[in-house]
Specification:
317 residues; 5-stranded mixed β-sheet; Immunoglobulin-like; alpha+beta; 4-stranded antiparallel β-sheet; 15% helix
């Protein structure tokens, strides 16, 4: 498998791969061989989203990898079966850290409602535990990195490999969704080459996904900052990601934010969201009192639709 996939990464620019592949017209990328088998048998679009890159030899991680909207697949040739394909620990690499569960949060015993993981000192409960167990457990999500919490308008929980979001407003379809951490990672850290460059579809042979046309009837917005803890001066960057009711990126959405300092508000406009639903805005941090949280309100407009969310950072030194 590695030899086949490496044929697509011999240069900085991706080339059409060979082997047992599937082409996704939605993003213009192929998924092949063992990565394709893992994709199709371990959750598909719901768990991984669409591919964002070709498979490539990543000099940072020293592995053959491929990025998807919600995950990074890694090829570990020396692992025993069935652990040669692993998912990257994106939550850990993005720097999300939370305190351990308080003693009163730890259940006396594990059950169908609660499970305590001493490996990371966190508890998974209720709908989050059901989804964790039904969709792949440790192999797909890793150990929990937080308790469930209220964040950006939703109840969420962080795991080593994923961030779950509970959407009780969804009437048809799964109410638990996964954050597009693969897109957030690429937007924040970039790639070592142009491996996200779309490729043309196969001329014949390999099957490919059929593009789905959709019209946005609802907006879902997530926002994050580059630095949760900062100095009282410096540069901060806010990342915004916008999707529609079908979890598809929304291109061309207008984004603005208000940064609330103790001394007064500052307002900024973003570039419209790109084809991946992303945009970002950097700004100079105004002098702030150490230890006083700075809240950022983000407003997104697309046609006659509007959605809001919040994020924050903490000036400290």
């Amino acid at each position: 498998m590695a030899a086949v996939l490496l044929s697509s990464v011999s240069a900085t620019y991706p080339q059409a791969p060979t082997g047992n592949c599937r082409y996704f017209v939605e993003t213009g990328h192929y998924v092949c061989d063992e990565f394709l088998k893992f994709y199709e048998t371990r959750g598909g679009l719901e768990i991984f989203g669409y591919p964002l890159t070709e498979a490539f030899d990543d000099p940072i991680h020293g592995l053959l990898v491929q990025y998807f909207q919600r995950a990074r697949m890694e090829w570990h040739p020396h692992n025993p079966e069935p652990y040669k394909v692993q998912l990257g620990l994106l939550v850990d690499e993005l720097g999300y850290r939370f305190p351990p569960a308080r003693p009163e949060q730890i259940p006396a015993f594990n059950s169908s409602l609660h499970h305590y993981f001493p490996e990371t000192n966190h508890v998974v409960s209720y709908a989050f535990l059901n989804y964790f167990r039904e969709k792949g457990g440790l192999d797909i999500f890793g150990y929990p990195r937080s308790e469930f919490m209220y964040e950006n308008g939703y109840i969420v929980q962080y795991f080593q490999r994923a961030r779950m979001e509970w959407h009780p407003e969804v009437i048809s379809g799964p109410q638990m969704r996964l954050t597009n951490l693969g897109e957030i990672y690429i937007e924040r850290f970039g790639l070592p080459g142009d491996y996200d460059k779309p490729l043309p579809p196969p001329r014949s042979g390999a099957p490919y996904a059929v593009a789905q046309e959709s019209t946005a009837t609802a907006l879902y917005v997530s926002a994050s900052v580059r630095y949760v803890i900062t100095g009282r001066q410096g540069i901060q960057t806010v990342f915004v990601y916008v999707t529609d009711q079908q979890h598809q990126p929304v291109q061309g959405a207008a984004v603005r934010m208000t940064v609330h300092y103790q001394s007064g508000d500052q307002r900024y406009e973003f570039e419209p969201t790109n084809a991946s639903g992303f945009t970002r805005r950097s700004f100079d941090i105004a002098m702030s009192s150490p230890g006083r949280k700075v809240v950022i309100d983000v407003t997104v407009t697309y046609g006659n639709l509007t959605a809001t969310t919040q994020t924050f950072f903490l000036p400290w030194w």
